Amino acid sequence: MTNFSSPLFTIEVPKNVGLSDQVWHLDQLYHLGRSPSYTYVHSPFTCPRSYRSSWWQKIGFYLKKGFFSTQQADRLIKFLGLEDLEPNINNSYFRKWQKIIINIDKILEKNTDLDISQLKQIIQSNSSAKEIIYVFSTEGLYPFTFQIDQLIQQAESKGIAQDLNFADQYWQARSKMPINIPFDPNKIKILLHIRKGDTACVQLNHKTIYTHGAMAKIANSFEELNGYFRKPVEDREYHLILHKIFAKYGNQAFSTIVISDGYNGTFRTILKSLLKEQIYLNFKEIIQLIIMQLSANSKFEDFLSYSDTSIIIGEYNQNLLKSIQASVC
């Protein structure tokens, strides 16, 4: 292992967010750590919110982690090519190195007008030992994006390299773990993402149940809800988008894939809210809800009526991998 001339840092991405948020945090913290010319050491991570492991996979994961004292990545992270970046925290070379947690949120919250030298001074004031890896940690960087951008721009103006290329890592991983999707390479590609799952509404007789995240509420109209909820886009709006494109340019020029988590998460959230007594439905309505759940995802099949259109629907791990590939093609 190479002797490092600059301080080392690694990243602890939030675990309570989805994949896109995790990758965004990884990118932001990576560039922030590179700003003081620190050397990045990669820590494999998992994404339990986006990629569901079986019980046997979970048991194997924790046994391996316990026996070998290493940080593990699930298949999703391996699929992205973000498992074996070097230098890697699991290398035996780093086994005895001290790990110092650096709460980036607190630093940026207390210091609203930082420059790179001040950031470096604050970080390195935590310890003077030699064999240290600073662990950049956060609960969420969203309030601090402007500050981070300013620091990154300072680093770029000084010629400090920002050399982590997610695209290269992804395509290297595809050469080892290929995946097929139904895009026609000779046509213009359309990828239509329909967000349901955690943001949807279900019409039940004269009641409308709205969901957002882990919450469900019954309301006569969306305007009755507080600002936390996001107004779901109606299905007809998605069809209207495709109709307008095909009417203007012709549908034979396009290859279309429609992706969505579907309604499984929607009904799961409603059920949890019922069990917690956050919403109330009578027995007849509960039976109706169960029947609706069985066929809710079938409405996506309407998109198959369009020429050269495929659908990837449902919260299945393989569907997630296909959806990622469709997004980057």
Present the secondary structure layout.
Blueprint: E1 8-12, H1 19-34, E2 39-40, H2 55-68, H3 75-80, E3 98-103, H4 104-110, H5 116-124, E4 132-137, H6 145-157, H7 166-176, E5 188-193, E6 199-204, E7 207-212, E8 215-219, H8 235-249, E9 254-260, H9 264-275, H10 283-295, E10 309-313, H11 317-328
Please characterize this protein's 3D structure.
Strands 2-1-4-3 form a 4-stranded parallel sheet. Strands 5-9-10 form a 3-stranded parallel sheet, covered by helices on one side. A 3-stranded antiparallel sheet has the order 6-7-8. It is α/β, with parallel strands linked by helices and 329 residues long. The protein starts with 7 loop residues before the first strand and ends with a helix. Mean pLDDT is 87; it is low at 54-63. α1 (19-34) crosses α6. It is 39% helix and 16% strand. The protein has 11 helices and 10 strands.
Structural class, from helix and strand content? alpha/beta
Question: What does the average pLDDT come to?
Answer: 87
Major sheet summary line? 4 strands, parallel
N to C succession of SSEs: EHEHHEHHEHHEEEEHEHHEH
What is the strand arrangement across the widest sheet? 2-1-4-3
Rg measurement, Å: 24 Å
Which word captures the global form? globular
Number of helices: 11
Compute the number of strand runs: 10
Strand content: 15-25%
Work out the helicity level.
25-40%
Q: Which runs of at least 5 residues are low in confidence (pLDDT < 50)?
A: 54-63
How far do the termini sit from each other?
36 Å
